[in-house]
Specification:
The structure holds two protein chains of two kinds. Chain A has one domain: MetI-like (MetI-like fold, Orthogonal Bundle). Chain A starts with 8 loop residues before the first helix and ends with a helix. Chain A is mainly α. Chain B contains 21 helices and 16 strands. In chain B, α3 crosses α7, α4 packs antiparallel against α16 and α12 packs across α20. The chains are: A mainly alpha, B alpha/beta.
Chain lengths: 310, 450
């Protein structure tokens, strides 16, 4: 007795497959697979590997042994005397630059949302800090802050805003921190502005027209229409920017690398100092993960606000 | 009984094997024995690595401040590659990019076959560097003793993990016209004289200047020798006991504060290229650097060549010390053609080849073996003699302890430079005790960490 194949079998299987693709939920999961694979390989694996490294005494090229929270204890006890400086600086750097980037980005977006001459050109020019390769722009800033050749100081001195030779931008702790913040704001503001502008352009014009008919002032239109309608964009941009600024490395590394005497040290650079030149990759991973619980709370808070109904 | 037998025959089994080994090596590689000279005892068992035809070798190293030196290095490597049927690629990156690239290769267990190891990297990346004792022994046979600093960096627990490559001597480059104008007839020979000279030079508006920031070369080569010159040290010779909190350290810091108050200008914001630029821009009268300032004036800018001279390190109460940039080549464990890589490095260290390269480098590089001590490049121009003079008193960060992972970590965290920078803040009026305490805390975190 051989097995008889039904002549209509292939057709049934094809129909079943088609039916699966017709149903939204299974199709959704199937389509998610490539994204999940990419996220898993490029995001989840490095993240989990980073956590694993942080609880080991690994060194570069040598996987170490499990030491529990030893690396975290080492830093939280400020054993190296630099960790708390880096922690405070990171919060200061993120807080101040975020406030400036948010405010300036909003102002820029409002201006660019108006009908102004060369509007397209100005919008394109706004993206310049983003277009220039990061390290190149930071090198240019370093050159501008250089005490010998500083164009910034030349301007300040020649406009009598500062006495010769002008401020030592990168050689004095407070100035150096301010310089780092200025460059971060310069580079980050266009991101805010463009995102806010995109958000503003989808706000229905009818709302403003109705408000004007009702006699609303510009300020009232801004606070009662623009800001509420922009809320999701504001929160998402704020969230992304906060996370990126907390982890900012390139600018501070090129400009000061923690100098003078660790006064501009940030957690990202300190993690690098221990992990890469110092070879203690486990400790470096722990330093870079110190902020993870805090950032998780921030992300959860923003997501909660985003989901909250008006 | 047994001893008696040995005494009669004069041969133990070990001695027999040793002698037979030497005889076999002599027959197999007569050229080694011929070239061994007075130190040949270390080489009879050496095996000359042979290049594999069709192999590809990638070498990663820093971009020299003297561009023609890189061109000559690449030319020699390409020439050797062509002669041996090997494809050679030399990749150069700036000094501060070299370590991140090296670290990435070590972590990925993949990358260039040969990487230039600066300072104590062989201690940091020991497992990634192949044992090259055989090749170093061959070079010792041919070129004599290696420089002690190169040896200290290359040798990890008795095994050579890198082949000594070069020394970039650091000496003072100064403007003779400004010094004469200030009434200083010669470059200071002691740190105290430097204070006096700095005061006079500052009055001319062209100060003696140096970085005390996070410059991976110039900051270390300045402040470590100052510390040693007054008897200070980061750690004892045992490599474990932190010893920075001492009277000698305070003496060194107080000297530096006095010098800054008198007129030495320190720049915490300067990185390695900044003092070069300031000198070429006629902003300063003197600075501590490799020979690149003088060489570039001589072969490129021609503005202040005649009024530029160089001087060795001044002495402190405890002697004369220097710190030079030390580069060596490691053959990495992931190399598919390690033997070819070793063969190429040996060829590049051949005395004639090497001295062609140092000639093109115009005195920026000194050779790391005895045979290079009489390199004519340094006698070709009397102004280069200072760079030869600073080789002998050279030490390494962490001295008197041997280089280790710990000393490398202390170096990359700029602990000594930061200690001085903190005390030299606000025109040399910083808190000495706070500076020493901060350095001690950081050093203890490193040296007392398991």
């Amino acid at each position: 007795m051989g097995i008889r194949t039904r002549p209509d079998a292939p057709a049934v299987s094809k129909r079943r497959r088609v039916r699966i693709f017709d149903r939204e939920a299974p199709l959704g999961y199937v389509l998610l697979v490539p994204t999940l694979v990419v996220l898993g390989v490029f995001l989840l694996y490095p993240f989990l590997f980073g956590i694993w490294l942080s609880i080991t005494d690994s060194e570069l090229g040598v996987l170490g042994n499990f030491i529990g929270l030893g690396n975290y204890r080492f830093e939280w006890r400020n054993t190296d005397g630099v960790f708390y400086t880096a922690l405070v600086n990171t919060f200061l750097y993120t807080g101040v630059t975020t406030i400036f980037k948010f405010s300036l980005g909003l102002v820029m977006a409002l201006l660019l949302n108006q009908v102004i001459p060369f509007r397209r050109f100005v919008r394109a020019a706004l993206l310049l800090p983003y277009i220039i390769p990061t390290v190149l722009s930071y090198e240019a800033w370093r050159w501008m802050f250089d005490p010998t050749f500083s164009v910034v100081n030349w301007l300040l001195v020649n406009t009598h805003l500062a006495a010769y030779p002008g401020p030592n931008w990168l050689g004095v702790p407070a100035n150096a921190m301010a310089a780092l913040m200025i460059v971060n704001v310069w580079r980050g503001t266009p991101f805010y502005a463009i995102a806010f502008l995109a958000g503003m352009q989808v706000i229905p014009v009818d709302l403003y027209e109705a408000a004007r008919v009702d006699g609303a002032t510009r300020w009232q239109q801004f606070t009662n229409i623009t800001l509420p309608m922009l809320r999701p964009v504001l929160l998402v941009v704020l969230l992304l920017s906060t996370i990126l600024t907390f982890a900012d490395f390139q600018g501070p590394f090129v400009l000061t690398n923690g100098a003078p005497y660790n006064s501009t040290q940030l957690l990202s650079i300190w993690a690098y100092q221990w992990g890469i030149p110092g070879g203690a990759i486990g400790l470096g991973a722990a330093i870079s993960l110190v902020l993870f619980p805090l950032l998780t709370i921030v992300v959860a808070g923003v997501l909660f606000l985003l989901r909250r109904p008006e | 009984m047994t001893q008696g037998k040995r005494a009669r025959s004069g041969w133990s089994r070990r001695e027999f094997l040793k002698t037979a080994g030497v005889a076999a090596a002599t027959i197999a590689f007569p050229e080694i024995i011929i070239s061994c000279g007075p130190q040949s005892s270390s080489t009879p068992t050496a095996t000359i690595p042979k290049p594999r035809k069709g192999a590809s070798i990638r070498l990663l190293q820093w971009t020299s401040f003297v561009k023609p030196a890189d061109a000559e290095f690449k030319r020699q490597a390409a020439e050797w590659g062509a002669a041996n049927g090997v494809t050679v690629a030399i990749e150069t990156v700036t000094g501060d990019q070299l370590q991140p690239k090296t670290a990435a290769a070590v972590e990925a267990n993949s990358g260039p076959d040969i990487i230039q190891m600066q300072y104590g990297w062989p201690q940091l990346y020991t497992d990634a560097c192949l044992d090259v004792s055989n090749e170093v022994n061959i070079l010792i046979g041919k070129l004599g003793k290696p420089d002690p600093v190169n040896e200290a960096f290359c040798k990890v627990k008795g095994i050579w993990r890198a082949i000594p490559y070069t020394i970039v001597p650091n000496a003072w480059t100064y403007r003779t016209d400004y010094f004469q104008q200030a009434g200083v007839s010669a470059f200071p020979t002691t740190w105290d004289e430097l204070t006096t000279a700095a005061a006079k030079l500052k009055a001319t508006g062209k100060p003696i200047s140096q970085t005390d920031g996070h410059a991976y070369g110039d900051s270390l080569t300045m402040w470590n020798p100052v510390l040693w010159g007054f008897g200070g040290k980061e750690v004892n010779a045992d490599g474990k006991t932190v010893a920075i909190n001492s009277k000698e350290t305070r003496d060194a810091i107080r000297w530096a504060q006095g010098a800054v108050k008198a007129g030495l200008v320190v720049h915490p914001e300067w990185l390695d290229p900044d003092n070069n630029q300031a000198y070429h821009a006629n902003r300063i009268s003197g600075t501590l650097n490799g020979a690149s300032i003088y060489i570039r004036e001589k072969i490129e800018f021609h503005k202040y060549t005649d009024v530029t001279n160089n001087a060795p390190m001044p002495s402190g109460p405890k002697g004369t010390f220097a710190m030079n940039l030390i580069f060596n080549h490691a053959v990495m464990k992931w190399s598919q053609d390690a033997e070819t890589a070793k063969a190429m490095l040996l060829a590049l260290m051949d005395k004639d080849q090497y001295m062609k390269w140092t000639t093109v480098a115009s005195g920026y590089n000194a050779g790391p073996f005895d045979a290079f001590h009489g390199d004519p490049v340094f006698s070709s121009d009397p102004k280069l003699k200072a760079f030869q003079d600073v080789v002998a008193p050279g030490k390494w960060p962490g001295w008197p302890a041997l280089p280790s992972k710990k000393t490398a970590q202390a170096q990359t965290q700029y602990i000594v430079a930061d200690m001085f920078a903190k005390a030299l803040a606000n025109d040399g009026t910083g808190d000495v005790e706070a500076a020493v305490k901060a350095a001690e805390t950081s050093l203890k975190a490193i040296f007392e960490r398991p």
